[in-house]
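<tokenise_the_fold>
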Amino acid sequence: MTYGIPHGGYFVWPRDRQSHRRLDIDQPTDSRIRARAKGYWKTPHLYADLVKGPRDVLAWRRVPASVRTQLYAAFVHDTQTHRNQGINYFLLKSPRYRCYHVGRGCDKMRPS
């Protein structure tokens, strides 16, 4: 779950613009601050971290932009019922998207 506001293209009040970075990325030294924020800010949509390791980055780069939205929706849906082990693991277990999986010895290969 993401806390704070990852504003991207949305309007966010100036006081809240760095909330996502402070709470989810840098994380405050006092964990009570983050715990309190969890009750105040929550993303309005389902969200899941794509990257759990370096192969996840390589795998996501293989996915064409035209496929990413649909793939990400399927990935987020899957993480609601299964432990999130990163996008590369999801690609391996998904026949439809397996061609984008990064395996041993083929990290630099592109799917055909």
Q: What stands out?
A: Residues 65-79 form the longest helix (15 residues). Residues 1-7, 107-112 have pLDDT under 50 and may be disordered. Helices lie at 19-26, 31-40, 54-62, 65-79, 87-93.
